[in-house]
């Protein structure tokens, strides 16, 4: 069965094969985000997804080996935290886009572009 990712996800729009500026503009158009001033549009930021975390002792860290399993503080299937430069801005799910992983945004509650817009 040959079904593309958009069909598998029930018709949701997936940003694929776009350069980063086009991807940001497409995302902004869908979410109603404000336009950034021209000089700010090319400022690079690091977007990461946080699966979870675990607090361990230094001794436990030293005991970690190739087959070690550390339980995280999040449940399987729970949305992941989207962070921009380390600051949480929303939640997402991991999707497969061709041969790469991607993210499907669930919400962007922490993204406040109003403070950046003139």
Automatic annotation (TrEMBL):
<dbReference type="GO" id="GO:0009425">
    <property type="term" value="C:bacterial-type flagellum basal body"/>
</dbReference>
<keyword id="KW-0145">Chemotaxis</keyword>
<dbReference type="GO" id="GO:0006935">
    <property type="term" value="P:chemotaxis"/>
</dbReference>
<keyword id="KW-0472">Membrane</keyword>
<keyword id="KW-0969">Cilium</keyword>
<keyword id="KW-1003">Cell membrane</keyword>
<dbReference type="InterPro" id="IPR051469">
    <property type="entry name" value="FliN/MopA/SpaO"/>
</dbReference>
<dbReference type="Pfam" id="PF01052">
    <property type="entry name" value="FliMN_C"/>
</dbReference>
<dbReference type="GO" id="GO:0003774">
    <property type="term" value="F:cytoskeletal motor activity"/>
</dbReference>
<dbReference type="GO" id="GO:0071973">
    <property type="term" value="P:bacterial-type flagellum-dependent cell motility"/>
</dbReference>
<keyword id="KW-0966">Cell projection</keyword>
<feature type="domain" description="Flagellar motor switch protein FliN-like C-terminal">
    <location>
        <begin position="40"/>
        <end position="108"/>
    </location>
</feature>
<dbReference type="InterPro" id="IPR001172">
    <property type="entry name" value="FliN_T3SS_HrcQb"/>
</dbReference>
<protein>
    <recommendedName>
        <fullName>Flagellar motor switch protein FliN</fullName>
    </recommendedName>
</protein>
<keyword id="KW-0282">Flagellum</keyword>
<dbReference type="GO" id="GO:0005886">
    <property type="term" value="C:plasma membrane"/>
</dbReference>
<dbReference type="InterPro" id="IPR036429">
    <property type="entry name" value="SpoA-like_sf"/>
</dbReference>
<comment type="similarity">
    <text>Belongs to the FliN/MopA/SpaO family.</text>
</comment>
<dbReference type="InterPro" id="IPR001543">
    <property type="entry name" value="FliN-like_C"/>
</dbReference>
<keyword id="KW-0283">Flagellar rotation</keyword>
């Amino acid at each position: 069965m040959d079904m593309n990712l958009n069909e598998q996800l029930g018709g949701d729009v997936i940003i694929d094969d776009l350069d980063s500026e086009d991807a940001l503009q497409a995302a902004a158009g869908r979410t109603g985000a404000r336009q950034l001033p021209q000089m700010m549009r090319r400022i690079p930021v690091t977007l990461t997804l946080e699966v979870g975390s675990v607090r361990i002792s230094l001794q436990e860290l030293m005991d970690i080996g190739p087959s070690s399993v550390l339980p995280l503080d999040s449940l399987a299937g729970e949305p992941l935290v989207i962070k921009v430069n380390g600051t949480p801005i929303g939640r997402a799910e991991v999707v497969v886009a061709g041969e790469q992983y991607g993210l499907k945004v669930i919400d962007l509650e922490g993204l406040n572009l109003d403070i950046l817009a003139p």
